[in-house]
Amino acid sequence: MTTVNEFINRFEQFAPLSLREDGDPTGFQIGDKHAEIKKMMTTLDVRPETVQEAIDNDVNFIFAHHPVMFRPAKNLDLSNPQNKMYAEILKHDITVYAAHTNLDNANGGMNDWLADAIGLNNVSGMILHDTNINGEAHYLGRVGELSEAMTFKQLAENCKDIFRLQGLRMVTDNPNKLVKRVALLGGSGGKFYPAAIKANADVYFTGDLYYHTSQDMLAEGLMAIDPGHHVESICKLKLKELFVSWKQENNWKFEVIASKLSTDPFTFA
Questions:
Q1: Residue 111 and residue 225 in one domain
Q2: 110-118 vs 152-162: helix crossing angle, rounded to 10
Q3: What is the CATH number of the domain that holds 38?
């Protein structure tokens, strides 16, 4: 038998809580740490539809990237969909853990997965988080180079295909300009664009860019691709692959599945 707590201990060797950013509610979220893991599901978000997916698949441990409890509940009124979701989680004896910015900053974690998906080479860190956790330096974001220069528009089209997006936003005043050096940060990374400039990036790949931030980037000569926040759903299969390898190493018996649902709230006309 493998308990949730045993699994958490193993995961936090890979992505220690000390890697999380200040104020991030990463970590254990809901349930019983001492429960036996019978079936695990990886997901980007914990939403009512993913909780129902877990219930339908007899999952008793949800491992998410985004914390389910970003803000504390003010009451337990079940007419509130968020509160009702908490009740369903507890009613069905489901435990929830979230690895957010510690997974972003982990070596071999979220931002390395994104850099690999885009095809970046000579990848290095963008913003130093620490110099010695697990004997290694860790960074927020990544910077790397495309195998060959291409136009900004071609890179944007490639990203659209790679992540199977309906659309993305381009911040550019010259879509035909050749680019090669790319900085990236999964999630909402607009405020960190000065680090992309400092790293001599031609393009900054990050989500949820604000209007005025985008204007400021262009004024400073930096172009950007905003693919949205949901590209981080790459974690569903990547986490599953990682956990299956740990299963084999430790002779764990529980099953691991990846959520098949999209939790992206946006569509395009």
A1: yes
A2: 120
A3: 3.40.1390.30
- Tally the C-alpha atoms within 13 A of residue 116's C-alpha that lie toward its C-beta: 11
CA distance 188 to 159: 17
Give CA–CA dist 150/181, Å, rounded: 10
Residue 269 lies in a domain: no
Q: pLDDT of 155-192, one tens digit each?
A: 999 999 999 999 999 999 999 999 999 999 999 999 99
Closest of 199, 195, 193 to residue 219, by C-alpha: 193
Q: What are the tens digits of pLDDT across the range 53-71?
A: 999 999 999 999 999 988 8
Residue 16 confidence (pLDDT): 97
CA distance 173 to 231: 24
Provide the residue range defining the domain that includes 73: 4-100
Residue 227's pLDDT is 98
> Whole-angstrom distance between the N-terminal and C-terminal Cα of the chain?
49
- Contacts of residue 166, defined as CB under 8 A and 6 or more positions apart, other chains included, come to 267, 268
Instruction: For CA atoms 51, 96, 162, 189, give the dihedral sign.
Output: positive
**Where is the domain boundary, 100, 122, 144?**
100
Which of 14-18, 130-134, 151-155, 165-169 shows the lowest mean pLDDT across its residues? 130-134
| Interatomic CA distance for residues 204 and 110, integer angstroms | 16
Count CA atoms within 13 Å of residue 263 on its CB side.
Answer: 25
Q: Give the model confidence (pLDDT) of 77-99 as tens digits.
A: 999 999 999 999 999 999 999 99
Cα 104 from Cα 98, distance rounded (Å): 12
